[in-house]
Amino acid sequence: MKSITKQKPYTEVSQLLEGLDRVCVVGCGTCATTTKTGGIEEVTAMKERLQADGKLVTGFLVVPTACDEMTGEMESINAEAFRNAQSILVMSCALGVQRIASYLGRPVIPALDTMFIGMEMSEGSFFETCVQCGQCILGYTSGICPLAACHKGLLNGPCGGTNKGMCEVDKEKDCAFTLIYNRLKEQGRLELMSAYHPPKNHHVTLKPKSFKIST
After folding, report:
1. Average of per-residue pLDDT values in the chain
2. Which helix (H) or strand (E) holds 126?
3. CA 10/CA 46 separation, integer angstroms
4. For residue 172, which phi and psi values (nearest 5 degrees)?
5. pTM of the predicted protein model
6. What's the pLDDT tens digit per position in 101-137?
7. Which domains does the chain have, with CATH numbers?
8. Which in 1, 32, 42, 61 has the greatest CB count within 10 A?
9. How far apart are CA 85 and CA 124, in angstroms?
10. β-bridge pairing 22-28 and 56-63
């Protein structure tokens, strides 16, 4: 599973950095590197663009995983670059932005937009596979999440617009329930298609979501 991101328009980044002339640029060596939004090439390109705009880049680096506890250790290793910066421009998912912001008492600016959590299905192609609802029905749908795979987020079968197994909203895309049907049929478990799933109870995972392992 990866956090799938895209770069913000540079005009937005520039606006967020207004009045902040000393910048440290931080990328992520996992998800953002895979999606080519925050790896060493993208961080270097951002550094050069900021310098062309008259910003002083105090440092630029790619941490192994921006969202884990190692980020704090990387801050110590690169203390001078962080100390001399008025702001930190983070080229990672929102998790990395929040992790870095928790360590530093200065503005932390996101350079990316986080779109979804997903998997790489083929090289360079990513698809949302889980909406993290806290009420998983994958056991009934043979490992295909209809909330993520269906444009309408339906739970109990296809809409009336499905046509020859294709989606009404995106005619180039297989209907999620066609995929579920075919997989269950191959497994000899078609009876699971008749199971009724009540509307999601959004009180199960109240925002902000949290979880604590019971001891």
Report:
1. 87
2. strand 125-128
3. 9
4. -90, 0
5. 0.76
6. 888 778 899 999 988 887 777 777 777 788 878 788 9
7. 2-116 (3.40.50.2300), 130-194 (no CATH)
8. 32
9. 34
10. parallel
